[in-house]
Every structure is written in C-alpha cells, then in structure tokens.
Amino acid sequence: MNPEKQFENELSAVFVRWWEESDIDEMDMARIAVKVVDRFCSVDIEYEGLDDDDVDIEFEPEDIED
C-alpha cells in the first residue's frame, strides 16, 4: 500500500471512530477537518457561506477500504 492510501485509511478510521462514538455531526467534523488541514498545511480552504443544505456529506463506515 502506498503512503497516500495508508494516510487516507488512517484518517478515515479516525473519522469513523468519532462519527460512531461522539455527538459531533458530519458538518461539524468537516469544518474541524478543514481547520486542521489549514493549520498543518498552510492551505487556505474556503468554506464560508456553506450551510448544511448546500453540502451533501455522506459518511458511512463501510466507505473505508481495508
């Protein structure tokens, strides 16, 4: 498995765990993830102006590939 796929799998596993075990909804998880990417990668990602009706985020544990 290449490093990019391994990184994707690791992040997905963390998201699934938090999705299953916390009361944080998908949109809040997405917003937090954007903040983390911005902080660590110094990449500006715009998400202002989006509300829950504008973005369809489907996050199911079965989306994770082994």
Please provide a written account of the structure.
This protein has 66 residues and is mainly alpha-helical. It has one domain. Helices cover 53% and strands 0% of the residues. The longest helix has 19 residues. It starts with a helix and ends in a 25-residue tail after the last helix.
Number of strands: 0
pLDDT averaged over residues: 76
Number of domains as seen in the coordinates: 1
Terminal Cα span? 10 Å
Q: Would you list the SSEs in sequence order as H and E? A: HH
Number of helices: 2
**Major sheet attributes:** none
| Relative strand content | under 5%
Helical/strand content category: mainly alpha
List low-pLDDT spans.
none
Layout of strands and helices, then pairs:
Layout: H1 3-21, H2 26-41
Task: Summarize the model shown.
This protein has 66 residues and is mainly α.
Salient structural properties:
66 residues, mainly alpha, 53% helix
